[in-house]
From TrEMBL:
Record's protein name: WDR64 protein
SUPFAM superfamilies: WD40 repeat-like
Protein source organism: Irena cyanogastra (Philippine fairy-bluebird)
Cross-referenced InterPro entries: WD-EF-hand_domain, WD40/YVTN_repeat-like_dom_sf, WD40_repeat_dom_sf
Gene3D superfamilies: YVTN repeat-like/Quinoprotein amine dehydrogenase
Keywords: Repeat
Coiled-coil positions: none
């Protein structure tokens, strides 16, 4: 806590220093200021910055920050830049030790091992920050979980054999610890942790319409169940809750499909509501808003944002019309805005 207080004080002094530089430069450009002994040149800026932050800052970052302030004082640089946080990785400088770092920047790691075959594409990718996982699903049925352990990625892949149906989206069920993926006619639930077989899981079928997207509804009410949303090619949005008991009680006698146990879709209480007059291109749940969003190329009911209860009670929903529809959307919690792309 003492180090944090010291850093806050140092940062405040640094920001005051930059503010003085900008004020003097502004007055100088307008002809209201004459140079005197109080001028902050590079040598003074360098010495003060080095005194405040020590070895946590590099000479080239100090020089670049000073040059940026002097050349364009109307746009103030972020203080993070003094630590080189916005520098590329091609500078050839080795990463400093953690003891000398004030701001720690995560390093990128490229996964070079191919997880899909030729003429196959990734159709869905989702990050699971709490478990340090990344889940991907390819169009032709390759589900992969990348687990970051000991600074290296371990992957668990499984190929879901199917005749003509393609995988159209995926997500992760945080409570049941299953990967959920949708195809044109089924819902896949893959237990990637299973030690018995890499293809252990369940398939929910039949689904009457072509499923195009899926997303998890983040709730911490019950650790023994998960809820997720799906969209189809007829404009319907589905709400489905899966519990651990469903894996035991609702298995079909139809046998196995790619070693997956079959669950009869008719045995589930699946809420469905038609919200769009065209394909549901994307669906997403926003925990901060406690609302879900769904979009379509439909020009009348282009974007819907409402509570998931609307899928059960069929009351009017909040919808927006955009010419030629909406293909993508996202929510920024900091700015409290939703952005759509058509």
């Amino acid at each position: 806590s003492l180090e944090l207080i010291d850093f806050k004080n140092a940062l405040e002094q640094f920001q005051n220093l930059v503010e003085k530089m900008i004020i003097r430069k502004t007055k100088e450009s307008s002809g209201l200021y004459t140079k005197d002994d109080g001028e902050i040149d590079y040598e003074k800026f360098y010495t003060t910055t080095r005194t405040l932050f020590g070895s946590a800052v590099k000479d080239q970052n100090i020089q670049a920050f000073f040059r940026k302030v002097m050349s364009n004082f109307d746009e103030r640089p972020e203080w993070l830049e003094i630590f080189g946080c916005f520098k590329g990785q091609s500078d050839g400088v080795s990463s400093p030790s953690k003891e000398s770092m004030v701001v720690l920047v995560s390093e990128k790691q490229q996964i070079t091992r191919s997880v899909v075959k030729r003429k196959d594409v990734i159709k869905g990718m989702v990050k699971v920050p709490l478990l340090h996982l990344t889940v991907t699903a390819s169009q032709k049925g390759v589900l992969t979980v990348f687990s970051k352990q000991r600074k290296s990625f371990l992957s668990y892949s499984f190929y879901f054999h199917q005749d003509t149906a393609w995988i159209t989206g995926c997500d992760f069920l945080p409570n049941l610890k299953y990967v959920v993926a949708v195809t044109e006619s089924t819902v896949i639930l893959w237990d990637y942790k299973s030690e018995e077989s890499q293809s252990d899981g369940f398939v929910i079928k039949p689904m009457k319409n072509c499923l195009l997207c899926v997303c998890t509804v983040t709730m911490a009410e019950d650790l023994a169940k998960d809820t997720f949303l799906m969209g189809d090619d007829k404009g319907h949005v589905y709400l489905l809750t899966i519990t651990s008991d469903d894996f035991i009680m609702k298995q079909s006698k139809a046998g196995k499909e790619s070693q997956f146990k079959v669950l009869d879709s008719e045995s589930f209480d699946i809420h469905k509501r038609k919200l769009h007059d065209d394909w549901v291109g994307k669906i997403k749940y926003f925990p901060a808003l406690k609302r879900f969003g769904s979009c379509s190329t439909d020009s009348i009911n282009s974007f819907v944002l409402d509570d998931i209860k609307r899928l059960e009670d069929h009351l009017p929903v909040k919808e927006f019309s955009v010419p030629k529809g909406v293909n993508a959307f996202t929510y920024c919690r900091k700015a409290k805005v939703i952005v759509t792309g058509g």
